[in-house]
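User: Fold this; tokens only.

Assistant: Input:
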Amino acid sequence: MLLFASVISVSASAQDQGANNDKKEHHKQKIAEKLELNDEQKARAESVHSSFRDEMKKLKAENGLSDEEKKKQKMELRKKHNQEFESILNDKQKEQWKELKKERKDHAKNKSYKKHGRHGKHNKHDKFKQLNLTEEQSAKMKEVRSSMREQALKIRNDSSLDESAKRAKMKELKEKHFKNLKDVLTPEQMEKLKKDNKQNKQS
């Protein structure tokens, strides 16, 4: 993922929208300082970022595309955004920009390793394997998690809801998801799952 694209793209989490916006703005300012952008470059960069934000919002609100098609178009938009941003930079700044992207990528890898261990994002699936699920439980868990993802995506993409309403809907969905898990898992498995989740948050 390209650095500036990740910084100014619309957050996938409705609950953290406000905090994410502040964080994005902070990152943009830091990058502008590191690249020593002049006032003209800053103005042009903001125009590029604004256009990118609008295109990403339109894409997220598009209901006629599959998740795979949206993912592909997002990648194309990020690539286009990066090219447009680089066109603003001089040769020295372009080299600095490459270094910044490399640092960001390395930082993301290290963060993922510390949080999830050697298996990275796949460690989440290992967590459920450690519960020693029966075949019936595994099938039900797959249905529960798939339903959770689909409903969460609908909430995030619902343009008729403001951020407060989305947070309320997401809270209700998490509570429902927790109840569904309790219906599938034994009390001992639920206790182990809660313990693993707590350890992951603290790590």
